[in-house]
Amino acid sequence: MGCEDVVPLRERGQREVFCGLAPIVWLHRKIQDAFFLVVGSRTCAHLIQSAAGVMIFAEPRFATAIIEERDLAGRADANAELDRIVTRLLERRPDIRMLFLVGSCPSEVIKLDLDLAAERLMRSVNGRVRIVSFSGSGLETTFSQGEDACLAALVPHLPALPAGAERSLLVAGSLAEVVEGQLERLFSGLGIDRVRFFPPRSADDFPPVGPGTVVLLAHPFLANTARALEQRGATVLIAPFPFGAEGTTAWLQAAATAFEVPAERFAAVTGPAAARATTALARLRPELEGKSIFFFPDSQIEIPLARFLARELGMRLIEVGTPYLHRQHLAPELALLPAGTRLSEGQDLERQLDRCRADRPDLVVCGLGLANPFESEGIATKWSIELLFTPIQGYDQAGDLAELFARPLLRRSRLVELAPCN
Question: pTM (2 decimals)?
């Protein structure tokens, strides 16, 4: 049992995945007084406007400083132009307390060192606005790695935990407010009262970090963030991720063990919520049990999701692809996967398409660009991007998470029933 020792198919070829700019859409909703200024091309501006603009009806807190051809050729002083844009932005939006300069291309391409620019600009505003840079370049990051780059860039700015301070728990990774509230109540019930979430909702509420900080990762794609927190002295717990009843219980158990919560108290606090989640999943299991599923690599949450679907809903795993397999953080998840599960790391799109079509799974989890072709071939799909935008962590979201996978199968079956006979 388990896939701890499985050697994945390591593929290096054409990829089909969003770049690291995409997390701006949920991070800008999470950090409510932050602004994300993408320094990039018109293509990047179109991505942000089309992917995020349709979802946000209030005035957004992101924009693009477009790099023109003359900038790329080094004929213009890009630093002076960036200073002008930032000054104008901060004058027009005095509510901004944190400004992210997001590189859409490596510094060698855009001819700008955004780290130095951020330091220079923060001095010019006398620290009134915290200015931080990170890369969302599709050449350096994929989809969810943009959040990792953002949070890792923030870690050096976190205040130091005072020497001798009592231990505290830091949950790293952006979560919906409703999920944070649910987790806070569970931690409080366990007697873990010093709990902070990172990123915070406000730039003025940065959590302190130091040797007394115990970290629980909310997502498996935060490798650089975890490393940066460890460099500040924090201890990162390794646990399954909070998807489904089983994953949430194991995730909470890691914190309970670290803070020496008695087993009786843990069972009393988590038992009712776990039972509700199990009941919600039981209603959807008949729709999913025995169905086969194929994961294209996209967000690095594929392995925890596969564990959840296989163990709690009885789905058959055909292939579980992930952009990057971080064995240390995913060790508990790999141990829970069914033996013999085919894993792939990275992507060679054409080869993976061939394998998927040969396997004819009941459900394919993939990006938007692949979904329509599969649907036209009679294969049901689940948009992987929806799994990042929807609250799916914790006990109370377990049923909603299962429904995200049951819905496309139900839609496909109805379409088959309605299809005219030839």
Answer: 0.92
Could you read off the pLDDT of 127-176 as tens digits, one per residue? 889 999 998 877 667 788 999 999 999 999 999 998 888 999 999 999 99
- Among 237-246, 267-276, 345-354, the least confident range: 345-354
3-state secondary structure of 259: coil
Shared domain check, 260 and 172: yes
Residue 173's CB: how many other CB atoms inside 10 A? 23
Q: Is residue 342 included in any domain, yes or no?
A: yes
In this structure, are 314 and 405 located in the same domain?
A: yes
229 & 316 share domain: no
Give pLDDT tens digits for 31-55. Answer: 999 999 988 776 676 666 665 554 4
pLDDT greater than 60 at residue 76: no
Q: Quick one: pLDDT band at residue 69, thresholds 50, 70, 90?
A: low
DSSP state for residue 395 in the 8-state scheme = G
Residues 284 and 405 in one domain: yes
C-alpha 134/C-alpha 63 separation (Å) is: 15
Residues 172 and 125 in one domain: no
Task: Report in angstroms the alpha-carbon separations of 31 from 205, 314, 330.
Answer: 10, 37, 27
Q: Which domain holds residue 176?
A: 168-265
- For residues 173 and 218, the answer to whether their CB atoms sit within 8 Å is yes
Whether residue 274 lies inside any domain: the answer is: no
Cis peptide before 156 (omega within 30 of 0): no
Collect contacts of 173-178 with beta carbons under 8 A, ≥24 apart.
173/147, 173/198, 173/217, 173/218, 173/219, 173/222, 173/225, 174/23, 174/26, 174/27, 174/30, 174/147, 174/199, 174/218, 174/219, 175/218, 175/391, 175/393, 176/391, 177/201, 178/391
